[in-house]
Structures are given as structure tokens and as C-alpha cells.
Amino acid sequence: MIHWGFGIATFNEDGIKTPEGKEERYVFNWLCPVPYFSKEARLRIDEVWAKANYSHKEQFPELCNGPLKNY
Predict the structure, then answer these.
(1) Which stretch of DSSP H or E encloses residue 2?
(2) What is the Cα–Cα distance from 55 to 57, expressed in whole angstroms?
(3) For residue 11, what pLDDT is reported?
(4) Is the pLDDT of residue 1 over 80?
(5) How far apart are CA 14 and CA 60, in angstroms?
């Protein structure tokens, strides 16, 4: 499994509670990296993802889903 973790971290001195109740001092605005690849690379990545065996693929059918999907 590949975990895409591209984004911008912003420091919050007061901290923010996660849904689990953990206090975090950084807020992450995640970005989908796929739009930054060449057309050929995106096609290759899509081919690999189509063949990938991932137990949560029904829930996440594409590499970048939901608000991260911008390509």
C-alpha cells in the first residue's frame, strides 16, 4: 500500500483536539500529488492503481478521493 502524504503543515500554539481526543499542535492541509505528474506518469499510476490489491479500495476507489481529488 502507498500512503500519499503531501501537504502543508501549520503550527497552532493552542492545539486542536482530534476526533480521538488527542491534542495536535499541527494542522495539515493535504494535497493530491497526482496533478503535478506528467500525463504519462498519471496514466501509469492509474494503471498500477487499477491492478492494486487494497482492502479498502471500495471505499477509496481512486488514489486521491473526496476533497483531495482535484485532477
Answers:
(1) none
(2) 6
(3) 92
(4) no
(5) 33
Non-local CB neighbours of 15 within 8 Å, separated by 6+ positions = 23, 24, 25
Grid-cell match 490489491, residue found: 53
Lookup: cell for 67: 476533497
Band of pLDDT at residue 65, cut at 50, 70 and 90: confident
Phi-psi region of 34 (alpha: psi -120 to 50; beta: other; left: phi over 0): alpha
The H-or-E segment that residue 40 falls in is helix 39-51
Instruction: Break the chain into its structural domains and give their ranges.
Output: 6-68
Centre a 10 Å sphere on the Cβ of residue 33 and count the other Cβ atoms it contains.
16
Cell 500500500 appears where? 1
Q: Please state the separation of Cα 30 from the chain's center in Å.
A: 6
